[in-house]
Write a structure and sequence with these properties.
Keywords: Amino-acid biosynthesis, ATP-binding, Cytoplasm, Kinase, Nucleotide-binding, Proline biosynthesis, Transferase. The chain is of the alpha/beta class and 387 residues long. The chain has helices at 40-55, 67-75, 82-103, 115-119, 121-136, 159-169, 206-211, 223-236, 249-256, 271-281, 292-299, 344-350, 358-362, 383-386; strands at residues 9-10, 16-21, 59-64, 108-113, 140-145, 174-179, 184-185, 197-198, 200-201, 241-245, 259-260, 262-265, 286-290, 310-315, 322-327, 336-339, 376-378. It folds into 2 domains: 3-269, Acetylglutamate kinase-like (Carbamate kinase), CATH 3.40.1160; 275-386, Archaeosine Trna-guanine Transglycosylase, Chain: A, domain 4. It has 14 helices and 17 strands. Strand 15 and strand 16 (336-339) form a beta hairpin. Bound molecules: adenosine-5'-diphosphate and the ligand N[C@@H](CCC(=O)OP(=O)(O)O)C(=O)O.
Length: 387
């Protein structure tokens, strides 16, 4: 099996990507690994890819495994029980961050998440706001599962699935999964000599999942199966997913030039359409009445709803709920929907106020808008604005 099994194809155009780097690229192969058991021989190329992407005005959120391997390297513990892995992850996480910091020109920022954080609407929005802010500040956010507290139902289980969840969380337009093999094969490539490379996947079928179920490498958690599961989640949200070998400098270099040697899993529909479709049909928990100025701003593509334009609040919704937006006047049919950044009670207090006053009125602030433009969908097109 070699990387040249996968002939090049165009990578979809992207502006924000989530890059997942598995333990198989960070540890377990060095004759002289550093004190934490991590070895930069492959990570350095991936860090360079991230820097070059930033230079092209692209944003990358990194999901990095390797804490357990780093912890093991530090104290040389054998064994594989869950609680030992949790302890090793705690021992290794700081080393993992230090490792990436040494390879990166920009400040790195650690975000540890569990499944629970992503299921809970408020924590989901908070994590999203933090990640957006970290990107705005020009830092490199690095995400890992919060292994010390995550067991069973709290756990996403593997970083491939975590990366897919993060790709939706940050509205990425590409998920990149770097691993130690060229891409997806029709069977376990190290065990089946007839395994064929699969460069393009239109739909993830049960047969494909079965082909990918042969288990992980010696350091990895889920093998190809969890990568395909992650790709299924991301592509269902409209995010194309690329699987490639992070060990081959030529493959990583080509990626920066928009060429993929690996497996591309195609999105099921358009990313924005998938999200907007959801916003359009999710049950709403309340309404905001807005003045003409705000209505006109929302009709112009790209505007968020600011508290100053809100005239009245109806319903008892919470931060993160879907709400409708209506104009004042006789015709009260909603013309937009979106996710509330603040609860009904909070919006009641900041309505008609300038965004700069939010903090002094509420004592805290999640952001300047009551509905962020990324979370807003227009239901009707205003003919005057369109013309
Ligand atoms: N059908 C398949 N195609 C490619 N790799 C497979 C397949 N089935 C199992 N694998 C295994 O999955 C491994 C990659 O997963 P894993 O070890 O979990 O890596 P990582 O640490 O990068 O997440 C490969 O090295 C290979 O041994
Ligand atoms: N959170 C764990 C990684 C779990 C995991 O999914 O590992 P991998 O299959 O190498 O991506 C760690 O940092 O070691």
């Amino acid at each position: 099996m070699s990387v040249s099994d996968f002939s090049p194809q165009s990578l979809p155009n992207w502006r924000r990507a989530v890059l997942k780097v598995g333990s198989s690229l960070l540890a377990g192969f060095g004759d002289q690994p550093d004190a934490a058991g991590l070895d930069p021989r492959y990570a350095a190329g991936l860090a360079r890819f991230i820097e070059e992407a930033r230079a092209q005005q692209r944003e990358v959120v990194l999901v990095s495994s390797g804490a357990v391997a780093a912890g093991r390297g530090r104290i040389g513990a054998g064994g594989d029980s869950l609680v030992l892995r949790q302890a090793l992850a705690s021992l290794g996480q700081a080393s993992l961050m230090g490792f990436w910091q040494q390879l990166s020109d920009r400040p790195v920022a650690q975000v540890l998440l569990t499944h629970d954080d992503l299921r809970n609407r408020r924590r989901y929005l908070n994590a999203r706001a933090t990640l957006r802010e970290l990107l705005r500040l020009g830092t490199l956010p690095i995400i890992n599962e919060n292994d010390a507290v995550a067991v069973d139902e709290l756990k996403l289980g593997d970083n491939d699935n975590l990366a897919a969840a993060v790709a939706s969380l940050v509205d990425a337009d590409l998920l990149l999964i770097a691993t130690d093999i060229g891409g997806l094969y029709s069977a376990h490539p190290q065990r089946d000599p007839d395994a064929r490379p699969i460069a393009r996947v239109e739909r993830i079928t049960p047969e494909l999942l079965l082909a990918a179920s042969g288990g992980a490498g010696k350091l990895g958690t889920g093998g190809m199966r969890t990568k395909l599961e992650a790709a299924a989640k991301a592509t269902a949200a409209g995010i194309p997913t690329a699987l490639f070998c992070g060990r081959d400098p030529a493959v990583v270099q080509a990626l920066g030039d928009g060429r993929l040697h690996g497996t591309l899993v195609l999105p099921q529909g358009d990313r924005l359409r998938a999200r907007k479709q959801w916003l359009r049909h999710a049950p709403s928990s309340g309404r905001l009445q807005v003045d003409d100025g705000a209505a006109a701003a929302l009709h112009r593509q790209g505007a968020s709803l600011l508290p100053g334009g809100v005239v009245a609040v109806e319903g008892d919704f919470r931060r993160g709920d879907v709400i409708e937006v209506v104009s004042t006047g006789a015709d009260a049919a909603p013309f937009a929907r979106g996710l509330a950044q603040y609860s009904a009670m909070e919006i009641g207090r900041i309505a008609r106020r300038h965004s700069n006053d939010i903090e002094s009125v509420l004592g805290f602030r999640y952001g300047e808008s009551v509905i962020h433009r990324d979370d807003l969908v227009l239901l009707v097109v205003d003919p005057e604005v369109k013309a």
